[in-house]
Amino acid sequence: VHAHVVKFGLELNAHVASSLVLMYAARGDGVTARALLDVQPASGGGTPVVWNALMSGHKRSRQFRLSCCSFLDMMRAGVVATPVTYITVLSACGKGNDVLLGMQLHKRIIESGVLPDLKVENALVDMYAECGQMEAAWDLFEGMQVRNIVSWTSVISGFVRLGQVDRARVLFDRMPERDTVSWTAMIDGYVQAGQFREALEMFREMQLSKVRADEFTMVSIVTACAQLGALETGEWARIYMNRHGIKMDTFVGNALIDMYSKCGSIERALDVFNEVHSRDKFTWTAVILGLAVNGHGEEAIDMFDRMLRAFEAPDEVTFIGVLTACTHAGLVDKGRDFFLSMTGTYRIAPNVMHYGCMIDLLGRAGKLREALETIGKMPMKPSSAIWGTLLAACRVHGNSEIGELAAERLLELDPENSMAYVLLSNLYAKSNRWGDVRWLRQVMMEKGIKKEPGCSLIEMNGTIHEFVAGDRSHPMSEEIYSKLDKVLTDLKNDGYVPDVTEVFVQVTEEEKQKVLYWHSEKLAVAFALLVSESSVTIRIVKNLRMCLDCHNAIKLITKLYVREIVVRDRTRFHHFRHGLCSCKDYW
């Protein structure tokens, strides 16, 4: 195209030249773009339309600083800025977080007499909001004589970025009209704030308002489903996308792979992976992580090999997936090789999460001394998670010596960490050190340290049900507790004995057993047994690590009731089937 422009002598035509400048700048070739601008008629250093194209192209290629510098060059060349100029460079300031230049532009705009111009005012509001200067954005917004959806959405998005979701919602509710962008901004705000149920509720309101969602809305919804383990709603979201012509591109596909993986449905995640034809490193990483956390270690490593054959370079997140895969598959030597290859082959410096994977790998294999030595070689300070991982390994393998050291280091970093006491108590109980178990319970009571309340989520027929240990607020509470009593009776008849080693209250054995009976995941399972068909997989999301007793009980439930149960706890997935768990009793 450029050759034909030169052939026909059109390179000095401002509109033709601006298209070429935009094309080159947008693809990151700023040198050619600037050379084309420099040959424009010298009178005034070219026309605003060509300069605007240069700035817009730099912005599209995410070279925000270059876009801003081009504006300064334009001013030095004596070219008069237009409203489009200001809108373009203000956007670059916002995206590049250059609030100082943005403020200078604001002053220049006032002096130029451009205002009031709704599009320029919106650009100013958006620039301040993007830069986190919400007082300035709010003052401008309040002073606008005319506002449109863009004005409102810019301020809402600004509050969302600062985590002020409640304030954003108040403003959203005041909007005279709303479009897809404003709804999506609010939904994504809830997702970013970790208020996933509110995000889904807002999406339902959006549907009632007859506003159609786009791919950005749906990715936010799918992300919320992933965090809640809401597979049914996630499946419905996929149907919605198909029905409304939202294509399975890389952006959408990556979100769906992550959602299915986090809902424990790795088969569906692989189906989506096979549908995504234009894969990037995030696509490969998502499926590798999904396979790894769902206990398919060998398959995850095979997928990593496929990634390399596809000439896609792994990043630090990819290696978290690969090391996790080695952990689940028990591939210690391979895990070491991958860890060393990060720096040796891929020039990726391991971070604390990679070291955590290595500690987990070595600990799972019983190589506790090597795990401790690895911690000593870390170039950064070990986190509480590192020591917690080692302590959990010591609990499994019954190593009191290293376990006590790990607990000591963990409590130095996080004195209120109740899980450290729980794991150490398990370790003492496994070693028949019941005096130390009682001492730990006394220490917890004296320090006022209480276990974080357990909470389990389960989705049934598109509705998220939440259960808290011992809670009776659910509308079906009586039926649930009655069902749970029957289930536990069946388990006891089959040889189940409650494991009370994690009960930290000084009560009788019978009362300790009652505390265990009412754990949130047991309530969720009882509810699912009441309301779901026997062919339906029960999927639960737990906010804490599963206790020993619940793990044992759910294994037996899958055997006696011939059900498949998937629990995603704080540490990993547990796929229970036929009385066994995919974690092989290590978590």
Give short descriptive properties of this protein.
587 residues, E_motif, mainly alpha, Serine Threonine Protein Phosphatase 5, Tetratricopeptide repeat, six-stranded mixed sheet, E2_motif, 31 helices
Layout of secondary structure:
Layout: H1 2-7, H2 14-26, H3 30-38, H4 48-60, H5 64-76, H6 83-95, H7 99-112, H8 118-130, H9 134-143, H10 149-161, H11 165-174, H12 180-192, H13 196-208, H14 215-228, H15 231-243, H16 250-262, H17 266-275, H18 281-293, H19 297-309, H20 316-329, H21 332-344, H22 352-364, H23 368-376, H24 384-397, H25 400-413, H26 418-430, H27 434-447, E1 455-460, E2 463-468, H28 477-493, H29 509-517, H30 520-531, E3 538-542, H31 548-560, E4 565-568, E5 573-577, E6 580-581
Parallel strand pairs: 3-4
Antiparallel strand pairs: 1-2, 1-3, 4-5, 5-6
Helix pairs in contact: 2-3, 2-4, 3-4, 4-5, 4-6, 5-6, 6-7, 6-8, 8-9, 8-10, 9-10, 10-11, 10-12, 11-12, 12-13, 12-14, 13-14, 14-15, 14-16, 16-17, 16-18, 17-18, 18-19, 18-20, 19-20, 20-21, 20-22, 21-22, 22-23, 22-24, 23-24, 24-25, 24-26, 25-26, 26-27, 28-30, 28-31
Shape: elongated
Counting helices, strands and paired strands, the structural category is mainly alpha
Proportion of residues in β-strands:
under 5%
- Strand count: 6
Please report the number of helical segments.
31
Low-confidence stretches: none
Helix content estimate: 55-70%
Largest beta-sheet characterization: 6 strands, mixed
For the record, give the distance between the C-alpha atoms at the N and C termini, rounded to a whole number.
Answer: 61 Å
Indicate the mean pLDDT. 90
Which value, in Å, is the CA radius of gyration?
29 Å
Strands of the largest sheet, in order across it?
A: 2-1-3-4-5-6
Keywords: Repeat, Transit peptide
Pfam family, one: DYW_deaminase
GO biological process, one term: RNA modification
Domain DYW: 495-587
